[in-house]
């Protein structure tokens, strides 16, 4: 599907739940969230129906998100059913997870047809990880990373939200992980969404800080359309480093995605409060997706005049 500005929209991020087994400080309120009723979140059958309609419209990549998608009952079966769309044009079925539960289900995910996983990990230090996740155990994430490797959920990417005064002193250590491991460590600029919208400015670091800290990084060719990460590598490293900079150097010209929240709202742009409600479309899911694609703006206005902070937290959107 081509949007109003000539971009090929071929990537759907589909959130299956707003619940999570962690409460990261930039993602969720300290008190947590109340579990929604069955009628307030998308049924599994609807999620699968959206995926089928999306592939018919030309979507070639689907990523399941949350919250934490692995806490949703029935997620393995959903993946198995969506994976069957690979016979109809789907090329990539991924999942973004905090990795806590991966050690118990990585093999099942692979057998069900999942292509790859992205694992969120904002600190390698056990105390700091427990602090930002409000109680998480980073050892569980390490076990999940190992399970993903053994299950061959490739390419394996680790997502690190860059936070000034918190994990910026770990940049070199994260980059060092790519020396002997065939993984991609991706640094993502902290975005002013939900809980983080009122954080101090000093917490928002430009992604160029990575290059200042690790000047040995070698730039790799830019992939162009659909790519949000600028890739680098250390000399003779097995892995790569990705830098994602939605604030300091937006990639709106290459944006190829739409997002659907767990309560059935389609967001044409992550950084806008504009949403389309699936309830207004009945069973016409293709029209729902078509209208969402056509509603995509030319670019976000995070740093522009009249910017209105996004009301939803990231767990409610799906990243």
TrEMBL record:
Pathway: Cofactor biosynthesis; molybdopterin biosynthesis. It catalyses: GTP + AH2 + S-adenosyl-L-methionine = (8S)-3',8-cyclo-7,8-dihydroguanosine 5'-triphosphate + 5'-deoxyadenosine + L-methionine + A + H(+). The keyword Oxidoreductase does not apply. Its EC number is 4.1.99.22. Residues 4-221 form the Radical SAM core domain. GO terms for molecular function: GTP 3',8'-cyclase activity. [4Fe-4S] cluster 1 binds at residues 20, 24, 27. GTP binds at residues 13, 63, 96, 157, 257-259. Monomer and homodimer. Belongs to the radical SAM superfamily. MoaA family. PANTHER family: MOLYBDENUM COFACTOR BIOSYNTHESIS PROTEIN 1 (PTHR22960:SF0), MOLYBDOPTERIN COFACTOR SYNTHESIS PROTEIN A (PTHR22960). This is GTP 3',8-cyclase. It comes from Desulfosporosinus nitroreducens.
């Amino acid at each position: 599907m081509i949007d109003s500005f000539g971009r090929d929209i071929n990537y759907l991020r589909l959130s299956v739940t707003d619940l999570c087994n962690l409460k990261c400080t930039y993602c969720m309120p300290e008190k947590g969230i109340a579990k929604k009723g069955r009628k307030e979140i998308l049924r599994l059958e609807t999620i699968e129906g959206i995926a089928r309609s999306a592939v018919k419209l030309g979507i070639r990549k689907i990523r399941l998100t949350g919250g934490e998608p692995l806490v949703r009952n029935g997620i393995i079966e959903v993946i198995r059913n969506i994976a069957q769309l690979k016979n109809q044009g789907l090329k990539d079925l991924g999942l973004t997870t905090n990795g806590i539960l991966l050690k118990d289900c990585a093999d099942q995910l692979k057998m069900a047809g999942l292509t790859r996983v992205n694992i969120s990990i904002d600190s390698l230090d056990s105390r700091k990880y427990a602090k930002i996740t409000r109680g998480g155990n980073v050892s569980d994430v390490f076990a999940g990373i190992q399970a993903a490797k053994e299950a061959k959920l490739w390419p394996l990417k680790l997502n690190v939200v860059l936070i000034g005064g918190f994990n910026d002193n770990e940049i070199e250590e994260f980059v060092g992980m790519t020396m002997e491991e065939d993984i991609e460590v991706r640094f993502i600029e902290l975005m002013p969404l939900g809980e983080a919208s009122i954080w101090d400015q000093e917490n928002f670091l430009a992604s160029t800080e990575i290059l200042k800290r690790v000047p040995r990084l070698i730039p790799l060719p830019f992939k162009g359309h659909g790519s949000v990460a600028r890739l680098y590598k250390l000399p003779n490293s097995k892995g790569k480093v990705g830098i994602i900079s939605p604030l300091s150097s937006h990639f709106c010209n290459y944006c190829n995605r739409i997002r659907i929240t767990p309560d059935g709202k389609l967001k044409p742009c992550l950084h806008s409060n504009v949403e389309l409600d699936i309830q207004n479309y009945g069973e016409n899911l293709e029209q729902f997706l078509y209208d969402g694609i056509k509603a995509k703006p030319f670019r976000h206005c995070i740093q522009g005049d009249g910017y209105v902070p996004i009301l939803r937290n990231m767990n409610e959107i799906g990243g």
